[in-house]
Amino acid sequence: MGRYLGRKLLIYALTFFLAVTIDWMIPRFMPGDPVSLMIARIGTRPEAAEVLRGYFIQAFGLDVPLWQQYLNFWKALFQGDLGVSIWLYPQPVIKIIQRAIPYDLFILLPAILLSWFAGNHVGALAARARWLDNTLLPVGYLLTATPYMWLAILLAWSLGNVAGVFPIAGAYSFSIRPHLSLRFILDLLHHWFLPFLSLFLVMFGGWAIGMRNMIIYEMESDYSRYLEALGTPQKLIRKYAFRNAMLPQITGLALQLGGIVAGAVATEVVFAYPGIGYIILNAVQNQDYFLLQGCFLFIIIGVLLANFLIDIVYVIVDPRTRLGMTGE
Amino acid sequence: MEQEQPKKVRSEFIFFAWRNAKLRIGVSILLVFIVFAVVGPFLVKYDPYEYSGPMGAPPSREHWFGTTIFGQDVFSQFALGTRSTLTVGLLGGCIGTMVGILVGLLGGYRGGMLDEFLNVITNIILIIPTLAVLIIIAAYLEVRGILTQSLFIGLTAWPWAARAIRAQTFSLRVREFVDLARITGRSSLRIVLTEIAPNMMSYLLLVFILQFGGAVLNAATLDFIGLGPTKGVSLGLIMNNAVLWAALQLGMWWWLLPPGATIAAIVGALYITNVGLDEIFNPKLREM
Amino acid sequence: MLSLERVTKVYRLGAFGLQKLIAVRDVSFEIGEREIVSLIGESGSGKSTIGKLILRLTPITSGTIRFEGTDVSTLNGLSLKEYYRRVQGVFQDPFASFNPIFKADRVFRMVRDEFYPQVGMREWNEKVEGALRAVGLNPPDVLNKFPHQLSGGQLQRFLVARALLLDIRLLIADEIISMLDASTRVDVLNLLADLKARGLSILFITHDLSLGYYISERAIILYRGRIAEMGPTDKIYNRPLHPYTEMLMESVPRLDRKWEEEGRIERKAALTGSVPGGCVYADRCPKAMDICTREEPELKEAETGHFVACWAR
Amino acid sequence: MLQVENLTVYYKTIRGYVQALEKATFTLADGEIMGLAGESGCGKTTLGHSLIYLRPPMNYIGGRVVLDGQELPIWDMEKMQEFRYRHISLIPQYAMNALNPTRKIGKMIAELLESRGVSYSEILPELKRRLDLVQLTQDVLKMYPIELSGGMKQRMVMVISTLLNPSLLIADEITSALDVSTQKAVCEMLVEFRDRGFVKSTIIITHDISILYQIADSIMVMYAGQLSEKAPTEVVFQDPRHPYTRMLIGSLPKVGVRYQEERLRGIPGSPPQLLNPPPGCRFRDRCPVAFGRCTEVPPFLEISPGHSVACWRAF
Q: Which DSSP state fits A24?
């Protein structure tokens, strides 16, 4: 078990190292001079441009040797200093991200966990009921093939615009100031529902299909056949198959995280939901590179943490990893 | 009668391929869009960004898919966008598959430290969310074209393919026919190309189809955030503009719905084709 | 002709090759001209690894393998090809030995591509047909077919015919009949005897003791990568010196006497298995002494040509 | 006591029915260990499995199976449920993978038994006794299958399969994956299970006839989906009457026989395709003594007590 987690941790550490390096490298080694580019795009008067240039050179730390820039970058990182935003100047990037994170968790955690839970159960049901299988499969494939933002658009248009049941922008109404009251919480949930639903639906399709295929595979495996030959009721065989089919689904969750992040970004853009995704959109539109870099790092950290959590869960549920019998 | 066996094998494949409804449906939908991507831009009457009609008009005879809030013809954008989206998918899918094949075959056949190294790299890139990297790269690129976009999408999408191909190579490498080729004095490269790769053809096709679908989705997401090609049109970009210019609030469904529906249909058709092919290649999944 | 001197093979396992598995340890033996030697062992004994080492399919960890005086590990490129011209192998699974998507006679074409590119097609085809007849196959029956259209026995003969196309001196036959049906097994076995009559030497790797007796003059008994006993086949079979060989001889289901007729071996001994220091068989050995758990016995000549690695002898 | 009459089972494929088992008729006495031998694809596994677990693509075509005076509804997956495990049990060929990898073995047995309405705690003392008998420590109940070696798993499955004292046990190729020494131990355990009354009768399916010589009371030889010969073990080896049996036994290398002294012969040719097998005796093409009558299917007739043959030359 120690070996298994140790190996994973090593990979995560390397990943983080690489991600930070990419983050540092890209503005420096991409063709073109990012500083001039930014100034040109911001398009201020010449005097201001000089001031900006000075600021940028200092902020990037471009006036010292490369290796020192690199070390400084890490140092600043550990002090929580991700630079200052251009879009919301002079707010520090980290503050902006900190504000957005609760919204992301609020959307992502329920969407991931519920879709995973529901998808697995419905998929397992589909594996034994033919009518459900025949309807679930096409629907499931269609859902996984749907771009996140389009499902979001579809929901916003149908339930928001046409039916007018749900609001289609923001995390809460403009008319309310955030405070702890039932009215505010209900308003929050009202705004939360559509983005949540669109994420939930796309992911649900993938989990359901994955579970259905895995369970059929497990039901064909040797241990299932043995139990069947001994006259075991289907109920127990299904229970075993379900349990064992869950294991690859857990690994699948770790692998899907990257895609889920992308989905969340797109969904937030559609609903103007103030999470990291919405910030990214604004950063892109305002050429706010520091903010982009910060978002990138936070996404990596989040994904790595989630991966590690999933690993721990996996070790708990699969005896084979506990006994050190498998390497991967 | 014995002599006819090989023909029988092939005809059996065609028999199953034809009988497989999933494959038939998937391939037909794909064909429709491919034909449209090729022919569509010739049917277009307007420049996609030209202000050619009334502003925000619903579909009409003159403007089949209506107009944007600026009076641009949505159908023109849509036809060109479908072409560029399919191109990115095809190119990105090709690049991703190629790199995956290269890394997977190399690591899987060679083994040892090289494999160990490639494996760690693969795992790392697998964990990093592709989109985040793409966003960072795209943001710093001054000029973004379809080619650069495909390149970057392909270069970040290969890890899972490499992993799957590596596993396949591993299982093929220890098969006796590989040993037999080795004691015939064949070089490693030739063995990989003439013994191992041909046995994975069906598998590589499946990998490519999935990479294709993934590339289409990735490109759409990038375009939608505003990091798509700086010139030209794409389906993601149409949605991006629609959302930015409040098509949602204004209820301009003709601007919002066609691009996403097309992406969903293309990717869905790819997935269904994939399942169908899998059933044909893998007799265990055939329903008797 | 072929000699192995203190050959050792260690596999590296686990992440970054940190774990080691000793598959073959300090194995030395020779194969002479026109000789069939049986290499007998259970699963995990390292018998197939030795075959792979001789065929250069896996690199040797230490020790040397010499073929007609040349160190095999020094071969490369052309000299390795010349080696393969003289030393060939046939493997256990006939169906896995053929690339399933190509016709079976592709293995012949490969030999021509690599070794005889200058030979004309007609001459080559005659040569192939000659080789096929030599292994008891009727060329029109088996040529131009896919592997799955042929039987396991036919495929194994096919591979022997492939080896015959070269000027081979030594054939490594790794469990070549273990996957064949009883009715065709013995024919392939007889084929090996015919090859010997044509002047070939054969290393016959098997787990089936009765086959080893039928075909070979000398036998080598392997246990966990070490040679336990080695010598003339009839001596090993009729008067085994190593307790492991004794146990094997008692356990093998024979058709001439039943298990009940002899004293039952201690069942527990057959069922446990942990790795100690000293003699690798000590934990299962009914005759184990103190020294057996401390020091590993060397292979000693107990009588002329009959070697055993056991402290009790 | 098992009586099988005209049991016919085909495999359904896209090209038609593979006639894997054709009109098998035989009886198995209480206490009998019968070896079922034949080449791969001769239908021995089909016969074994159709007695307990006949599921698609296997198709029941006809015939009767009577166990201890009761007819088995082998064509009905549901109705057979009652008989499985309690009356007929199976040690599968894939015994190494037959245990759920993510359940502790004891827990799995408990759930299996409870699902069949048997109390685990009541049977536990007997289970432990049997573990002792097959040289497994009681700790295995607290282990996961992956912690056991191949031989240990094999024995574990033997104990599980026979825990409810079935009347008939079908052991499918249980020795083929084992080493010589373990093989012997497992075989002797099978005999001991019979001797102690854990099972009444046993069918051992194997391609290794020398194993059967060691432990079987009788041997039944199959060829291309048809029964060829059934007789007490000694008779099969001393006085085989079917040419196939004779040639098969003649081709087996024995310790003490070398090619220089006695060159053994295999059986030329290969078995017919079972998709459209030729009419009559299916061994006809390879048989050295075939004659005109062999175009008719020979009946499987008892020619002396306990010795049945399907060959026109033997009658």
A: H
